[in-house]
Amino acid sequence: GPPGFRPAAPRTKRPGLVVAASVFGALVVLGVIGALLPNDPDTTGKGDRTEASSDGGASGSGSADKARDKPVDPRPVSYEGIDVTENYALRLADHPPRPLEDEDSGVMYGKKDFYFYRDSLFGDEQVGSANGKLVVLKNSQKGSLKVCREETRYTEKIGLDQLTSGSQICVLSKAGHIAVVTYRGKSGANDPSHYITIDLTVWRNADEARES
Q: Where is this chain compositionally biased, Basic and acidic residues type (predicted)?
């Protein structure tokens, strides 16, 4: 060839680069295969447990929603030592309950929830309701909202001679109020007026009102 010209020496492949390229290619292939394989069973199990717990949480919140939908019982309000004079009556909605007259129709035919009636001619005495139902509780029973809701031995009037001190009566008014009357006794023979003394516990709006 011409003087001074040297042919380029052939490039030799570096073995290090070849090995690195081969390793990189193998890693890529393994990565693709790994992506195609199903998940590890342990991981799947954890996922199932997570779903189960989330389902449980959902059902729990559903129960809580139902509990919130259930109406809450009203709180009782108690009054002690109410003197109810003959032919006077109480309304359970009043706070505090104060005995009232029914001058037009008389307490037996009025619209009040609990009355004390005394026949002025024969002296017969009774308690009753002109706006609901009564239940005399047995000595073994203790008056409560639950007991008064469950009892069905209804009457509208009770002779005073059927009661003793401590007797309890459920009053279920048509307005939806429920009460426990505890009879404490009546006026003495020498008292200038005729009356009974009661304690009263009222759960207002405990039930839906019924039409009169």
A: 43-52
Q: Tell me the C-alpha distance between 173 and 134, whole Å.
A: 9
Distance CA 200, CA 181 (A): 5
pTM: 0.66
DSSP type of residue 9: P
Report the C-alpha gap between 197 and 80 in whole angstroms.
Answer: 9
Please give the DSSP secondary-structure letter assigned to residue 188. Answer: -
Cβ 81 vs Cβ 112: under 8 Å: no
Residues in the chain: 212
* pLDDT tens per residue across span 2-37: 555 555 555 555 555 444 445 555 555 455 445 555
Residue-wise pLDDT tens digits, 43-58: 444 444 334 444 444 4
Question: CA-to-CA distance for 178 and 15, rounded, in angstroms?
Answer: 99
Domain spans in the chain, listed from the N-terminal domain onward: 15-69, 77-203
Strands 157-159, 168-173: pairing kind:
unpaired
SS3 content of the chain, % helix, strand, coil (to 5): 30, 25, 45
Q: What angle do CA 119, 97, 191 make, to 5 degrees?
A: 40
C-alpha to C-alpha distance for 148 and 202, rounded to whole angstroms: 11
CA distance 133 to 159: 15
* Average pLDDT of span 107-131: 92
Residue 81 in contact with residue 97, Cβ under 8 Å? no
| 198: number of Cβ within 10 Å | 25
